[in-house]
Design goal:
The protein is mainly alpha-helical. It is built from 6 helices and no strands. It is globular and about 50 Å long.
């Protein structure tokens, strides 16, 4: 049941990204182009997401545990370190250059276009490289 709920949540998220056209890199790039072809659509999508997620989290976290798991899996750390800030900077640079981030990239795979496939493949290589790098740093 837990996996079915995760699948349905992922499908709903992907459908929302597709319906809002957030799988289109031009939307993001136009949002960042405030002096040119500015498109505020991304801001409206973010505001809508926060309007749903904020109260949703507040309601869910009142419970002792989620419906389909033994407990909540929330981050234990609250500090900011160089790895967190560096990762956020790299993510932002990549998002600004490419106009797409992991969620929309995966959702865009259903288009069967080569660009999302290349993006997700590169993302997977980057994730594997980061995992390797962290393993080398720890050793």
């Amino acid at each position: 049941m837990k996996y079915l709920a995760a699948l349905l949540a992922g499908l709903l998220f992907g459908a929302g990204l597709t319906i809002s056209d957030m799988v289109n890199p031009d939307r993001v790039i136009d949002f960042l182009d405030v002096a040119g072809t500015f498109d505020p659509t991304l801001a409206f999508v973010m505001i809508g997401a926060l309007a749903v997620a904020g109260p949703g989290y507040a309601l869910v976290l009142r419970r002792n545990a989620p419906m389909l798991d033994e407990g909540f899996h929330l981050p234990a750390r609250t500090d900011m370190d160089v790895r967190l800030i560096g990762g956020a900077v790299l993510f932002g640079i990549g998002w600004g250059i490419g106009g797409i981030c992991p969620g929309p990239g995966i959702a865009a795979l259903v288009s069967l276009r080569w660009e999302p496939v290349l993006f997700v493949a590169a993302m997977m290589v980057g994730m594997a490289g980061a995992k390797w790098w962290v393993g080398q740093s720890a050793a």
